[in-house]
Amino acid sequence: MKKYLPTILILAFIKLCIHFVGNRNYGFHRDELLHLSVSEHLDWGYFEFPPFIAFAGKIAHFVFGYSISGVRFFSTLAGVAILVLCCLIAKELGGKIKAILLAGVSVLSFVPFYRNHMLFQPVAFDQFFWTLGFYFLIKYFNTKNVKFLVLLGVSAGFGLMNKYTIVVWGLGVVVGLLFYENGKLFKNKWLYIAGLIMFLIVLPNLIWQINHHFPVLLHLQKLKESQLDENGPFDFAIEQLKHPFTLSISLIGLFAYFFDKDLKKYKTFGIAALVIFASMWVMQSKAYYFFAIYPILFAAGALKIEKLLKNKPRWNYAVACVVFLPIIPFLPHAIAVLPIETYSSYADLELQKNGRIQLTDDYADMFGWEEQVKLVDSLYQSLPVKDKENCIIWAKNYGEAGAIEIIGKKYLLPNPICSNGSFWLWGTGTTRGEVCISIGNEKVIVESAYSNCKLVKIIKHKYAIEEENNIPVYLCRKPKINMQKKWKSLEEHVFD
């Protein structure tokens, strides 16, 4: 292993360097603000996701505060671990130095991983737990040491506490194991002990879901209606074709699991990949959910190429260059390595008549939050002391609420109220809201709750996503309703 370590460390260092540059630019993403907000309210579950991201956010805040690059370091660390695991899997499959190199380069060359491993989201950790689970399973195949089944249960349990999509991973693994030694593993008590360990890890979240009437089901329904139903029947598959060089490595790996005589005992992973792909396609899943499967395919593909080029080993370096070099021009689109003005010029984005520049949604969702909080703070600080004591900050959506909750801490703003998503769980605070600063809510909404509503400003931003452009800020007085009494009735609308 020692002779392979320098190669793995160099590849990991390259990935770290790219993220060191890209993670610092722009601002927090809308989803990052939500994930950090839930870390301020630790619990065993949330409306949108399990609790792992909240605990990770709490650790990130403890270590780095709310530094953008500090918080994002944890996602990047998961991404680096995926690269290392992919290399280790290639070694466990029987690969030598060339296979390990190409496996790591394949992870470096998969463009979506840069976005996935930059933003502080469950996605990076989901990909990590998938890859870790596969690694432990391969270790068990190679050693028959039951401790790796126990570790498999632990990784699956924490994976389920991070993102529920690991259920599909579990389905693929279970089906794949039916073809491993004719299903002999299902007679091994340690497999069921591993399952019990997984269950015990996820039990607190299951109890939370029961106590809150399974909000995950409502979330999945709303997600399907608002996003997944818009996907065409072939969108999921077509999205996988956008990265042809790494796709080629993965397809070679899939082929190898079924037809290479040295890899046939690992056919479980090929079957799991097919089952997961088919399941996600049928469910019209988001394409990036499937990206977590690629490291296990990259490892086998790298090994197969090493074997094919055993008489011309230097060609492995040519293959690595062909896989990696073409993605370099696309890096600025995947990770914020360029300042926004430079990126706008690089991407040839033209200034529109309304004075805005249209970015991709992920980039656009990183702009505008600081300006929103500054305006709310200036308005809040202008209030008399008595009004401050009775003031609530009412945000329309979780992005605006997250900005007040997280960015607002340096301004000492009170926590917002918001009926969108998990913010509903945290209620309306301790005041009835005799005075209210409303951000994002339309005029008809604020006037239904307050008699005196004064429009302070319409916030515009050159780069912000359309949803956060032209948003109104109102100063409201004389409440018509008791927000605290009405709050419970808003639960059924948390995902509207």
Structure description:
The longest helix is centred in the first third of the chain and has 25 residues, at 68-92. The protein is globular. It has 2 domains: 4-334, no CATH class; 365-490, no CATH class. The chain is mainly α and 496 residues long. It contains 24 helices and 4 strands. The protein has a 4-stranded mixed sheet.
Q: What is the compact description of this entry?
A:
Keywords: Cell membrane, Glycosyltransferase, Membrane, Transferase, Transmembrane, Transmembrane helix. By secondary structure, the protein is mainly α.
What layout of secondary structure does this protein have?
Elements: H1 5-22, H2 30-39, H3 52-64, H4 68-92, H5 97-109, H6 112-116, H7 122-143, H8 147-160, H9 166-177, H10 189-211, H11 215-226, H12 235-240, H13 244-259, H14 267-282, H15 294-308, H16 315-324, H17 331-334, H18 340-346, H19 361-364, H20 369-381, H21 385-389, E1 391-395, H22 398-406, E2 435-439, H23 443-449, E3 450-459, E4 471-479, H24 483-486
Parallel strand pairs: 1-2
Antiparallel strand pairs: 2-4, 3-4
Helix pairs in contact: 1-4, 1-5, 2-3, 2-22, 3-4, 4-5, 4-7, 4-15, 5-15, 5-16, 7-8, 8-10, 9-14, 13-14, 13-15, 20-22
